[in-house]
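User: What would this chain look like folded?
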Amino acid sequence: MRPYFTRERFGRRQFLAGSLLLAFLAQAAWLVNAELRPGNLPDAAEAARIGEGWKQLHGQGIAAAPIQDAASNEETYLVHAGIENGFDTEHSPLLYLVSAGPLLAWPRDLTRDSAVYWRWLPRLPFLACGVFLGASLWYVARRLCGNTGGFIALTFYCFSPSMLQASAVWHTEPEIVAAWGAFGAVFTAIAVAHTLYAPREVVLWNWRRIVVLGVALAIAVGSQFSTIILLPMSLGFLLYVAPVRRGAGFVIWLAACVVGFVVLYATYFFDLHSFAHGVRHAVFWGATWRGFTVLGVYRQIAIHIGRASPVLALALPVALVAYVAWPRTRYFGNTAPLLVALTFVALGMAHPDLAGAGFLLAAVPFLFVFVSGVLADLLETRYRQVVSACIIGMMAAYVVWNLVSLSRVPPG
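Assistant: Here's the prediction, encoded as structure tokens.
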């Protein structure tokens, strides 16, 4: 039996990647501390999530299906969170349970006096999701475009202002969970498709990946109903990557959908009545194409990408030009993340509400993979030294700029 703790699995590269992820976690924790340092209690949005999750965890109903005291809560946070007749039309109970779950470890009552000790707990799951998404991105980018591409993508991610803000839930919604689920669903589907070339009983052999794909779909859809677009998207990748065994791919996709359904149903604590009512009120599409006719929407998209990573303002145009002009860069490892990112950006433009912000955030990791893949290809040309110097300078300035910006974050 091959040993698990080998240099290939736990070597210098893994140590460097872990160090970058620790730096990401430290920056996100700094943001959380800056917000909570003045002694503030959770804001209205977070308090509503905690309250609904706490209600479900203590057997007093299902979170947001319907919402407790919806009439009074709608006047604050819930009015712009997609609430209809007391039901959350954009989220399942998953985010509510994730927010309130860590508070079960607090042995006392959740009072204002003790808030200084327990107010960190609801942020921990989202900080973990941010770290897990970064680890997933590094693993995927490394497999697609080598070690150099993997570290470029991870550096993009670990110093991304929007990813740090989402992981810390710093004056924003917890969209990081849907982003992690979307990233996992797409690349797990691609990974499953590649295994179909092996001469084995594919369904039984792939049961672990089926479970992972199903859980990823459930996390994404449970965090944002409109990400149900990932179901046909994952099926499309399965059928495209493994055209010789499309029947097996379709069966695997169905099995993953069943797993995802069970996991999503479990977030309702298997309450069929609440589940049926929640699904009936859920908005799984809600897109409008009016945004494509408004110039200001395109400006906001550009601003969002710039906020996601200021260095993308330079690196993304370079990557797109190289992708169009140089056939060598137009392979599946670069094309797939680009197509997914463009799809999510288009869906973000088509959803002028909270779901649009979720799609735009989910597009960012795919843009990082695409740009890092093209830059890794450019490093293999005869201009390697020039390209390498530009990348190092760009990354160094990016890291310094982000750290300086973090140091200037005001309390509260």
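The mean pLDDT is 88. If you want, I can go into more detail on any region.
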